[in-house]
Amino acid sequence: MAMEAQGGRMPFFYSPEGRLLQVDYALQAVNRGSTTVGLKTKDFAVLSSHVKPTRSLLEPAEKVFVVDEHVGATGSGYIGDVTSLVDEIRVQAQRHRLVYDVPIDVGSLARHLGQYLHNFTLYTVRPLGASLILAGIDPLGIQLLQIDPSGTTFRGNGFAIGAGADEALDVLTKGYNDGLRVDDAIALNTRAIESLNGGGTAIEHGVITRESGKFNHLNGGKAPKPPAPKGK
User: Fold this and answer.
1) Is 80 inside a domain boundary?
2) Helix (H) or strand (E) holding 44
3) How many Å apart are CA 128 and CA 80, to the nearest integer?
4) What is the pLDDT confidence band of residue 58, given thresholds at 50, 70 and 90?
5) Has residue 227 been placed in a domain?
6) Which domain CATH number covers 53?
7) How confident is the model at residue 7 (pLDDT cuts 50, 70, 90)?
8) Does residue 143 form part of some domain?
9) How far apart are CA 216 and CA 213, in angstroms?
10) Position 52 in a domain
């Protein structure tokens, strides 16, 4: 039995080493998910995720999501858990707009999600086997945050989660500089994912720029062209 296997402890309790076993299992679920990366500079952020092949006649699951017009998300782990978390922060973003009549800042949205995930570690329920990366813009500028199944929130210029995350992050680290253009960042994210999955990998991208202030899916993996000058 599970209790006996854990030395008299139910699996949601601490191990003798002080680890939450169910959270460790959730992190392993994330590590088996699609390779997913995020990258930001002061002017933009790009999210990218490997779209795994599905059975014939089935459409692949969506991997990059618009949360609110100024925030996007992607994730790795059990896709049902990923979409459930995206729905949770979509509701929180809309609730904030209704109450305060302004968009929610990205840090507050990440903290809400972190607390939501943390609550699953306090009771005899299954922690969600998913980790999310959020990209958005608020009064503090372009933001990129990762939230893991324990509810821990991280800020940074680059993240990689899912299968081969360490190797993908190494590619991002070696290729990153704050002067990257959007196309360069998309190419770097693609290279990080394809270094693990081979060339020709199907990858879904999303981008937000300081200029547009809106998170968008990219057309064919390329940055949207700026509008043509008027009168031409």
Assistant:
1) yes
2) strand 44-50
3) 9
4) confident
5) no
6) 3.60.20.10
7) very low
8) yes
9) 10
10) yes
Could you tell me the two tokens for 116? 């939501």
CA-nearest of 111, 70, 99, 89 to 212 is 70
Instruction: Give me 165's structure tokens.
Output: 């995350």
Cα of 34 vs its chain's centroid, Å: 11
Of how many residues is the chain composed? Answer: 232
Domain ranges, residue 46: 17-217
What pTM does this model have? 0.88
> Do residues 103 and 70 lie in contact, with contact meaning Cβ atoms separated by under 8 Å?
yes
> Over the stretch 182-216, which tens digit does the pLDDT of each residue have?
999 999 999 999 998 777 678 999 999 999 999 99
- pLDDT of residue 168 exceeding 70: yes
Q: With contact defined as beta carbons under 8 Å apart, do 131 and 67 qualify?
A: no
Q: In the block, which residue shows the tokens 């679920």?
A: 29
Are 109 and 72 contacting, i.e. CB atoms less than 8 angstroms apart?
Answer: no
| Token pair 């390779």 in the structure block, residue | 35
How many structural domains compose the chain?
A: 1
DSSP state of 14: B
Distances (CA, A) of 210 to 28, 97, 109, 170: 35, 21, 19, 26
Cα distance between residue 223 and residue 130, in whole Å: 28
Strands (E), the chain: 36-40, 44-50, 64-68, 71-77, 130-138, 141-147, 153-155, 158-161, 203-209, 215-217
What single letter denotes the amino acid at residue 170? D
Does residue 127 contact residue 134 with C-beta atoms inside 8 Å?
no
Nearest to 128, CA basis, from 82, 163, 161: 82
What's the rounded Cα separation, in Å, for the pair 45 and 194?
Answer: 19
Calpha distance 98→206 (Å, rounded): 26
